[in-house]
Structures are given as structure tokens and as C-alpha cells.
UniProtKB/TrEMBL annotation:
E.C. designation(s): 2.3.2.26
GO biological process, one term: protein autoubiquitination
Reaction it catalyzes: S-ubiquitinyl-[E2 ubiquitin-conjugating enzyme]-L-cysteine + [acceptor protein]-L-lysine = [E2 ubiquitin-conjugating enzyme]-L-cysteine + N(6)-ubiquitinyl-[acceptor protein]-L-lysine
Identification of the protein by name: E3 ubiquitin-protein ligase E3D
Any one GO cellular component localisation term in the record: cytosol
TM ranges: none
UniProt function note: E3 ubiquitin-protein ligase which accepts ubiquitin from specific E2 ubiquitin-conjugating enzymes, and transfers it to substrates, generally promoting their degradation by the proteasome. Independently of its E3 ubiquitin-protein ligase activity, acts as an inhibitor of CPSF3 endonuclease activity by blocking CPSF3 active site.
Enzyme class per UniProt: transferase
Any Pfam family: HECT_2
Summary of subunit composition and partner proteins: Interacts with UBE2C/UbcH10 (E2 ubiquitin-conjugating enzyme). In vitro, interacts with cyclin-B.
GO molecular function terms listed in the Swiss-Prot or TrEMBL record: cyclin binding; ubiquitin conjugating enzyme binding; ubiquitin protein ligase activity
Amino acid sequence: MRLLVQADSDTKSVSSQNKSLKAQRSYSFYCQLCGEIIIKERTFLRVLPLPSEHWGALVEEWCCHPSPFASSLLHPLDDDCLLGDTYVLVNSGSKSHSESQQPASKSKENTRVICKRCKAMLGETVSSGTTKYYVTELIIRPSVEGFHMISRSLFVQNVVAQCLVELSSARSTFRFRIQGHDGKTYILMWLLNSDTLLVESMGNSDTSNTFTLFEDHLRTSFMSSDTWNAIKVLFLPCIKDRNKILADAWENDFGVHLLTFPSKTCLELLLIMSLNNASLPPSLQCLNSFQVAFLKMM
């Protein structure tokens, strides 16, 4: 069987939203789940990239003496926005519309920043006045554009896919360890292909009733025939100590890039990829010991 697929020739890859931030422009941050305004019409005088997550370990390798940066943390000034791979750092002050949960205990759980409306975790309080917002939990838009609701499943896929594509291009790394904010490894991912054209053919709408999570998005997908830019990945789940030996090996491998997201988002991503894997023909579901999945890009 042959398929003729037509796609727009002017389709362009959309850069991740944290990389699209520019200095001297006004932006608003919204909770991706409910649309609540988290930061309203804020103009950053400087928007600067942060070094990679492994920079501290690399400095140890370069220096013949104890690292002079061992106890140093990078914090944004009042009108700064610092960009990490999976988060943005801002000086919150009194301009944030989110809530910070910080009881007397100093455990990791007590530094969470949550949405006032839907109580979703948006990020963490790094220090007094500095907040880390994860890009999987926010929609960042120029203030003049306003908020537009996006399917949670599609949004998570797009953010993670764009992150993997950008890192593989900039740093020639193709293996990734997905870690929750609790420090646990949830998924091992291997980027195989970043220029896949994914075609969803029309299916039976009755099958969508079997899904409860992401139901609206899945029903739309089954009822239409859409073409998406996508990436092809190999993945292994690591929850409940599954694949622990390989996870430990990847943790100590400098060729593996660490990506940290909220733990709930890691589970969402694992479910998305597992559902996608289950929808593939049996002969295409596995490669060696890894499972195969596709992540869509908007």
C-alpha cells in the first residue's frame, strides 16, 4: 500500500517557548492547565542562558584545585530572566500571582510553587526572591497576544520534543535521563530521528471511549486525519526500580543529558509515550530492549 502525503512546504519548526523570550519585550506567564495569570505584563531587561546542568561536574574535571564555584548559585536580578533547559529563573519579588508552599521544614516538597486556581505545581522556590518555573507547566506569551488553551498532551509532547531537538543539535547529545523534581529517574530516552512526518489516519471514534486521560485530544486525533512534525524516540520506564542497572549507568555517563521536570509531568510523559507505543504495529513497538514512541511538535 502506498500513501500520498501532502504537507505545507513552508512549515517551520517552532522554537521552545523559553528560548523565544527576548529582552525589552513584555511577556505574561500563564498556568498551562487552567490559564491563570502567573506573571502579568513583565518586561525583562536581560534574558540570559544558563550553563548546562553538568557544568559543576565539568569544572571539577578542568580545575587542578577545588572548584571556586562549588558553593556558587546563579540568581537573576530584579529584571533578569535566566533560561535553563527545562525551566526559567525569575526574580519573583511581589510580581508573582502564584503561591509558595514553605512550612518550617526545609524538605524539597516544601519549596513548591503552585497555581492559586488549580493548585498545579508550577515550579520551585530556589532562594528568597528567586523562583524556578518549569516550561512544561507554563505558557509564555507576549502580553499583546493573550492566552490560548492547548491540549495538555500535545503541549507536553511539543515542549519535550523541542527540548530534545535543540539539545541534540547544540550539544550533539542524543541520550537523555528524565528526572522528577524529587530526584528520581522516571524515563531513559534516546532520540533516533528529529525530522519525522507523522500521519494520523481516520479511525473509529468508539475506540476513544476506552481512554480517560487526555480523552478530548485522543478523540480529536481518531476522528481526523492530521499531519504532524514529530520526533522518534526510544524509551525505557524506570519507575519502581525498573531498568535500574541501566539507569544507574546512564546517571554516571557524561554523554547522557539530564532533564528535570515535575514528577507528575514525568508520569504524564511516560503515559503519553506508552499509549503511543501501544498504538503502533507490534513489529514497530520495540527496538532491541527499548520501546518506540513518537512525540508531536506544533
